[in-house]
Write a structure and sequence with these properties.
By secondary structure, this protein is α/β, with parallel strands linked by helices. It is about 40% helix and about 15% strand. The chain is globular, with a radius of gyration of 18 Å.
Length: about 325
């Protein structure tokens, strides 16, 4: 597929993980990407997380013509005006706060704006989507949600179980997110979400970011742009056009050893194949219409072809996330 010219509106992607370097940042510029919510860590400790933030400080210094850190929606708007890509920080697991509630505010001060309460497994806070039993949010998790609400760190339940996610919506006094997943009714992947859950998410003011990761797509790497945009249209009917955005789950530059770290961390010696078969152990081939940051224009064009108005395309591509940042990145 021929890549369309960069989309001219706000493009905000709520989930990416890459071997970050200047070539990736240049690709973001070429694709007109306004903001990327980057995964800092998966299973790392607090000290290891600080080292990752230190690496990003150097990246900001060395690539200041292409990227800048964003702590607020105003920063995202400023980045677009300066023709730079804004970078926000996210944790895919609660391990960086260890068992210390005070680390939530410290990490927020350093720029972390999203934290998942669990990553596939049972955590100190919540149950992951791969567990057979889901008792919901733990005692510690309740305190974590309360503190995240207070400081303005957003609760993310992308890799969490059904009951835990419903429970977090109930407990959180501020809207939560599922930054990268799709409806289970469209593709029954373990990490995709039920229609009832997505409706509850929308009714509570939360946001869903649609994932382009092939294991979460109908027909996996053979998923068509038309099928993906049709799924978005049906989800918009269910959740409302203001509660959906993009969370591509794009991964670039990493070998299979990173897949093993993502899935196994320090908790397992046996390879966890993720979707259940050995053939799913490594990185899947990307869909032809989205291979990297230069391809967001394809999605915008696909939505327009599907019948989305210009205003609604703008919302899905970035304005909904920008509004959510404005409302939820600050203290309660």
């Amino acid at each position: 597929m021929t890549t369309t010219p960069p989309y001219s509106g706000f493009v905000i992607d709520s989930a990416q993980y890459a071997k970050w370097d200047r070539s990736v940042f240049q690709e973001m510029r070429d694709g007109g990407v306004t903001c990327v919510n980057v995964t800092l860590v998966y299973w790392e400790t607090a000290r290891e997380t600080l080292s990752e933030i230190g690496k990003w400080n150097r990246l900001f210094e060395q690539n200041s013509d292409l990227i800048m850190q964003a702590r607020t929606a105003h920063d995202v708007r400023r980045a677009k005006a300066l023709n730079k890509t804004a970078i926000t920080f996210a944790f895919q697991h609660c391990s960086p706060i260890e068992e210390d509630i005070d680390l939530i505010e410290i990490m927020h001060t350093l720029g972390v704006r999203f934290m998942q309460l669990s990553y596939n497994n049972q955590s100190l806070c919540a149950t992951g989507c791969y567990e057979d039993e889901d008792p919901g949010i733990t005692r510690f998790g309740r305190q974590v949600i309360r503190e995240m609400n207070r400081v303005g760190m957003v609760v993310d339940m992308s890799h969490s179980g059904e009951r835990s996610t419903f429970h977090s919506i109930e407990l959180s006094e501020r809207p939560i997110t599922i930054t990268h997943a799709n409806p289970k009714s469209w593709q029954p992947a373990l990490r995709n979400k039920s229609d009832d859950l997505l409706k509850a998410l929308a009714d509570s003011g939360g946001m869903l970011g649609f994932s382009m990761y092939p294991f979460h797509l109908k027909d996996k790497s053979n998923c068509t742009l038309e099928s993906f945009c049709d799924m978005i249209a049906h989800t918009a009917d269910r959740m409302g056009i203001d509660r959906i955005g993009i969370g591509s789950d794009l991964v670039q530059g990493h070998g299979n050893e990173v897949v093993e770290w993502m899935r196994n961390g320090r908790w397992s010696k046996a390879m966890d194949f993720g979707e259940g078969t050995a053939s799913d152990a490594g990185w899947p081939d990307p869909v032809p219409w989205f291979t990297g940051n230069r391809d967001f224009g394809n999605l915008a064009s696909g939505l327009a072809t599907r019948g989305f108005t210009t205003e609604d395309v703008d919302k899905v591509m970035g304005l909904n996330w920008l509004r959510f940042f404005e409302e939820n990145f600050g203290p309660a």
